[in-house]
Amino acid sequence: MYKGILITKDDTGYMSKVAEITPKPLQEGEVSVQVKYSTLNYKDALAITGRSPVVRSFPLTPGIDFSGVVIESKHPAWKEGDEVILNGWGVGEKYSGGLAEQVTVSGDWLIQKPITFSFKDTMIIGTAGYTAMLCVMALQKHGIKPSDGKILVTGANGGVGSIAIIILSHLGYEITASTGRPQESEYLTGLGATEIIDRAELSSQGKPLNKEIWAGVIDTVGNYTLANACASTKYRGAVAACGLAGGMDFPATVAPFILRGITLYGVDSVMAPIDLRKEAWERLAKELDKTKLDTLTTEIQLSEAIHFSNEILGGKVRGRVVVKL
């Protein structure tokens, strides 16, 4: 038996609680992992609280990522003692995930933990940091260089935004951080932001085209924020969209795309191919300033995760929440 958060749904309603879970026999191709650290992401908070239909199979343990040590394997790539990480693949949605002391997953979904990171480091980075790197990679593959101008990062106090700022700063980019918490300006400039703007400047309906400001954008918000970011992106610039904290709508026009030739990249971290994941984590190991990780981290125990889920959805938590198992 091992402890984990268990989400159930029946005639009595939707419930999340810490419970004792019985492990199931390992199937061919599966790997059991002793979880060292997991995280509490926005999607996990939605799953735990039931505010959005994230969970598609019941009962289920949430947690879209984890790091840990292989304790049993029926997959040829992995053996007992291997140190591994996982992000996405429907874990925490369709399949039980990392907010438990033990997890069993397909060995095809695992990658080796970079030796430069501790278990805790990998989950401070987590899916948020891995997604941030995918966004940076999208802008760079588009050809955007530091000399091209400012990069806008929306939802800057969140996990993706915070780590995107650290990466972009290390690479020499000038960063404008958009946040709904201007009192956190010192925190954001400490991560590497050069300018702070209030999210209210972007979060209501704007013009089809605005003044050209951003060479590139990393957007975690969606809705009017994404539309306005596109409307202010420079000619031939690019926007990497990876989140919907402000809503799924995209109330925009085609004007920025056909009059300025901008490109909108959709960045998916859940089903990204293994080679892209490995590239992202290899680059994180080289290009992420680890000295800044602790400044954006809150560490909690499994028993605190349900409470912190409401704090995250209420916009009361900055940076990353890591869960020690």
Automatic annotation (TrEMBL):
Residues 9-323 form the Enoyl reductase (ER) domain. GO terms for molecular function: acryloyl-CoA reductase (NADPH) activity. Pfam families: ADH_N, ADH_zinc_N. It comes from the Bacteria. PANTHER family: ACRYLYL-COA REDUCTASE ACUI-RELATED, SHORT-CHAIN DEHYDROGENASE/REDUCTASE. This is Enoyl reductase (ER) domain-containing protein.
